[in-house]
Amino acid sequence: MDLQSLKNIPTSFAIAKRALLFCLIITLVVPLSSLLWAYYATLNIKNTAYVITKDGQAALIDIIKDNEIDTYRIPEITHHIKMFHLAFWQIDQFNYERNINKALYLSGDSGKKLYKTLEANGHFAKISTENLTQKIEIDSIVVNDKTYPYQANFYAKLRVLRTDQKIESVNNFKARFILYNVARTNENPHGLLIENYHLDLNPIIKKR
After folding, report:
1. Which of 198, 188, 156 is nearest to 80 (CA)?
2. 21/70 Cα distance (integer angstroms)
3. Whole-angstrom Cα distance, residue 150 to residue 38?
4. DSSP 105
């Protein structure tokens, strides 16, 4: 064996070790760099979104920051409450089934219990057989967003009209309940559920 070749063995090992170390560093740096890039890219994406305009073009908008959610949530909560009460209570013999199905997507177990109670009391059967129309006139909606779940009170007047005899009754309508955040769906666009629904209904006028 050539002595010069033996002398070159340590040098070859040193080169191999440096090559392995270099490969190890590259192996670590590339995925870590990719993770860091993905993290910062995700942060930027979270703050932006695109919407499709009526012309079919994509428009860039800013996403609401976490500390701004409640500022924009109050109008959604108020509209959700309005949607539920109009769907559940503003009904007649032709639309009550369809409307109440819509309302039940906006409430949880308490909405179902309210429906079953009214059904057991013959409320919907009376609307159907006696040709009644219910209309609800909203006076005010009060929301407390300082606590979670959100607390709310709903004040209105419920008018019940028998169209064939021109008989109308008017009731003071007051409801209190809480609202939970849930996932948004097509049937529940605000991502809220009404629970712990307590109703206070008192007749104030009855006229012919």
Report:
1. 188
2. 52
3. 36
4. T
Please choose, from the candidates 60, 81, 76, the residue with its C-alpha nearest in 3D space to the C-alpha of residue 136: 81
Chunked mean pLDDT (size 10), the chain, 208 residues? 52 68 76 72 56 49 51 86 95 89 93 93 88 92 92 94 75 94 92 94 67
Look at residue 48 in the predicted model and tell me its pLDDT.
55
Strands (E), 53-166: 58-62, 132-144, 150-162
pLDDT in tens, 25-70: 877 777 777 777 776 666 655 555 554 444 544 455 555 454 455 5
Residue 72: φ, ψ to 5°: -90, -15
Tell me the C-alpha distance between 40 and 37, whole Å: 5
List the one residue out of 204, 192, 112, 126 whose CA is nearest residue 162: 126
Nearest to 63 by CA among 37, 43, 39, 40: 43
DSSP string, 18-71: HHHHHHHHHHHHHHHHHHHHHHHHHHHHHTEEEEE-TTS-EEEEEPPPGGGHHH
H or E stretch covering 98: helix 96-104
Torsion of CA 174, 179, 183, 189, to 10 degrees: 30
How buried is residue 179: exposed, middle or buried, by Cβ count under 10 Å (0-12/13-18/19+)?
buried
Q: What pLDDT is stored for residue 88 in this prediction?
A: 95
Q: Which residue has the tokens 């007047």?
A: 157
